[in-house]
Amino acid sequence: MEGRDIGSVIFPDAAFRFFLHANPAERARRRASEGQQDSIAERDRLDSSRKTAPLACPPGAVSIDTTHRTLAEVVEQMAAPIAARLAAA
């Protein structure tokens, strides 16, 4: 499941939580390639400063900067801690 509040509000005790982020220019480029135009910086400002459930990387989540990574690289980076924890169990 993905969304801005999933790991911090909806499932704060999930076994695996990841916080994916990229720089605003790259996020704007990706959204434009999907035919969407919006103000990334304004959206981030509003979400980060809201009173209820502000946007933030929750404690214990793995933070992944996707700016210069392909989808396959992001999946690989997410799979590593999952595989390690499952192997230890």
Structural commentary:
The chain has 89 residues and is mainly alpha-helical. Helix content is 48%, strand content 9%. Strands 1-2 form a two-stranded parallel ribbon. It is flat and about 45 Å long.
Q: What are the salient characteristics of this protein?
A:
89 residues, mainly alpha, two-stranded parallel sheet, 4 helices, 2 strands
Globular, elongated, flat, extended or rod-shaped: what is the shape? Answer: flat
What is the helix/strand order?
A: HEHHEH
**Portion in helices:** 40-55%
Radius of gyration: 15 Å
Q: Which assembly state applies to the chains in this document?
A: single chain
Can you summarize the main beta sheet?
A: 2 strands, parallel
Judged by helices, strands and strand pairing, the structural class is mainly alpha
Total helix count?
4
State the separation between the terminal residues, measured CA to CA: 23 Å
Strand fraction equals 5-15%
Low-pLDDT runs of 5+ residues are: none
Element layout with pairings:
Layout: H1 6-10, E1 18-21, H2 24-33, H3 40-49, E2 62-65, H4 71-88
Parallel strand pairs: 1-2
In short:
The chain has a two-stranded parallel sheet with strand order 1-2.
